[in-house]
Amino acid sequence: MLRFRLFGFPVTVEPWHWAILAFIGGGLGIRVREDLLPVILFMVAGFVSILIHELGHAFMSRLFGCRHVAIVLHGMGGVAISQGARFNRGQDILLSAAGPGLQAFCGGVALVLLLQGIIPDGPATNLVSDFALVSLFWALINLIPVYPLDGGQILQNVLGPRRIRLTLVISIWAAVAVALAMFVLFSSYLFPIFLAFIAWQNYKMLMQTDAHRGW
Length: 215
Hints:
Layout: E1 2-6, E2 9-13, H1 15-24, H2 36-63, E3 69-74, E4 77-82, H3 89-115, H4 123-142, H5 150-159, H6 164-186, H7 190-214
Parallel strand pairs: 2-3
Antiparallel strand pairs: 1-2, 3-4
Helix pairs in contact: 1-2, 2-3, 2-4, 3-4, 3-5, 5-6, 6-7
């Protein structure tokens, strides 16, 4: 368990975060020593990118007056925990958008540097390329209207608490559609499984909501 402070925010990095990054970065394909460096570079790029994402949430939370914000990186992502904070709907929307917004901005800067040939060839190019890829891809995924991803939380706040059922229905169909599209376009299993799991969680929440209304 790695713990440190950054810009005054306590940060905790759980072991599973490194394990998932290694898996996504091709850790299972390591056969010789030369295969190790690309995996390590991807892990570093993914860690920095996801940390930037959570810093976006944390800085916005601090801007809205919360003085106790902690960041935890776990599994495929992370969370910025605002202790004791209460935000209105407009603030919640900005708070949710700040993470992928900052991440996409930094990924875009990295992409421009690559296209301009500013980054020297070698490991540095691979590192910045991985950072741009992770940042832009993860920011885009987080903005789809699937709860509890940032886009889903934005949708929930836009529709309001009285339309939670509509939020969940949209979330389920969006998760299924994006999962199928990613499988067809990229022959990928990891993120479709991830989105399918979220769709199932949303379906269970929808059933609980309907049961509660039935009473």
